[in-house]
Design brief:
Strand content: 5-15%
Number of strands: 4
Mean pLDDT: 77
Low-confidence stretches: none
Number of helices: 13
Shape: globular
Helix content: 55-70%
Strand order of the largest sheet: 1-4
Order of helices and strands: HHHHHHHHHHHHHEEEE
Largest sheet: 2 strands, antiparallel
């Protein structure tokens, strides 16, 4: 039921973002939380700029849905969320913060159910609960005793939960264009606010390093995540992305010498079991699609993209992006809450 490539995109995004927490912890010695957040997102913008100059749909970009979703993603996902995370990171070990980020998985699922018409079945909720519990098990040695830091990270998780749901439904901007907008606006705002408040900025060497970390851990990671979320839905892609805290912990052990606990093996096993439950799901029923025109990454072997390319010899499984038309149709097939399946389930 799950396409392989979107799953790989989400896991690669998790790998890149997971490494950002200990890297950001080390960089906070030379920066304030706001100035570092600004540089990380400006690095993301620089990384995706060459790939953002074409694609998307000029008509769809002007739609209230796409503009509103982009603005929400930029404000909550690019400005507020990173600032809250870095303030929390200043008060707690990077391994603890990496584990608390699992709260984003639960926040994404609850918001998806309440506000974004994303269908979740019992096995999805069970998998989601398992992922969150895995994070709680890992965090147990710290006992959430660092209450202020934990609350800041929890607030950041809610912000990113909103961001995840908005970006999963954008179909007028390419993932690179979404990341560019988020990087430029959020980076400039946070850096400017940090400088105005007198927060420190390190020398040229560490500044370049912060931009490089942002380019990989935010720029490439966000692009990969959006690509996966558009195909899998916000909740399912977030459950894959939830491997990021575990990867962040592993980096913290190796790079920062933070201690390893036996309980982590239990949590890793629980995580793997939860993802197995997620991957074995099968959702299929008779459903209707309205006629629509939009732009997004797609291939021609999913039962929805049957348009032709007369001038291009394009294999069915080749992923590509362009504006295309969907005719109204009623059919039955296994599906997920991607860009084409946001129908209700009475």
């Amino acid at each position: 039921m799950f396409a392989t490539r979107p799953v790989v995109w989400c896991l690669l995004a998790a790998l890149l973002f997971g490494a950002s927490t200990p890297a950001s912890k080390a960089l906070l010695d030379g920066f304030g939380p706001l100035t570092l957040a600004g540089l990380l997102y400006l690095g993301a913008a620089l990384a995706v700029l060459p790939f953002s100059l074409s694609g998307g749909s000029a008509v769809r970009r002007r739609s209230p849905h796409n503009l509103g979703s982009l603005i929400g993603a930029v404000v909550f996902g690019g400005i507020v969320g990173p600032a809250l995370l870095l303030y929390g990171l200043r008060l707690a070990p990077s391994a603890s913060v990496s584990l608390w980020l699992n709260l984003e998985t639960g926040a994404t699922a609850v918001l998806a159910l309440w506000f974004f018409q994303e269908n979740l079945e019992w096995r999805d909720w069970l998998a989601n609960l398992g992922v969150v519990v895995a994070g709680v098990v890992l965090a147990a040695p710290d006992g959430f005793g660092l209450a202020p830091a934990a609350l800041l990270v929890a607030a950041a998780a809610v912000c990113w939960g909103l961001d995840n749901n908005w970006t999963a439904t954008i179909d007028g901007f390419t993932p690179e264009q979404v990341t560019l907008a988020k990087g430029v606006v959020a980076g400039t705002f946070n850096l400017g606010l940090g400088l105005a408040l007198g927060q420190p900025v390190a020398g040229v060497g560490l500044t370049v390093l912060a931009l490089l970390v942002g380019g990989l851990a935010y720029g490439a990671s966000i692009v990969l995540y959006i690509r996966g979320a558009q195909q899998l839905g916000a909740t399912r892609s977030q459950m894959l992305f939830a491997t990021a805290p575990f990867l962040g912990v592993a980096v913290a052990w190796v790079a920062l010498g933070e201690p390893v606990a036996l309980v982590q093996v239990i949590a890793m096993t629980l995580l793997i079991g939860s993802l197995t439950i997620l991957f074995t799901g099968h959702h299929e029923h008779d459903h209707a699609h309205d006629s629509m025109v939009h732009t997004h990454l797609h291939c021609h072997d999913d039962g929805h993209h049957d348009h032709t390319h007369p001038d291009i010899d394009l294999p069915p499984g080749a992923w590509h992006t362009h504006e295309h038309v969907h005719q109204a149709i009623v059919h039955v097939h296994a599906h997920q809450p991607d860009l084409h399946h946001r129908h209700t389930h009475p």
